Input
Amino acid sequence: MISKNDCILLLTDLQESGVDIKDNILKVIGSTSIPMNVLKFINSHRQLDLTQFYDGLRKSYNNKKSKLYINLIKGEMDKADDILTTLLSYALQAELFCRKATDVQMFIRHARLKEIQIALYKYYDEFDLSVCQKLLKIIRTDIIACETIDGRR
Output
């Protein structure tokens, strides 16, 4: 998801726009992981592209336009077709969202597009679904974290 370097970059951007980041930058530097309250702080001043992306997926599901969000959230899928379709759909939606992203390179990293491509390549090379299944669990965790940051959970 979001690295310490990304967090520091985002906080620095906020500082340049006049936001006091002193306490939050110290929390990031002094911690081994990214504190959720720092991510909430960043998102409250500048919505993260990733939270905006997941919010769009959720809204699309709520409007009965897409099942992608529920497929990502529900967890375990056993059929190869369901797993592959979900990952491919996610990658396509993330790629389309890049047009709206504030920082495209950061969004691509946060949305795990490279990891998805590697997992799909491994499946098509070795026909092993385990990497794809693990990645879906990680994406599910990312969604839950972003919804927590955004105040939806």
About this structure: The chain has a mean pLDDT of 93. The two ends are 18 Å apart (CA to CA).
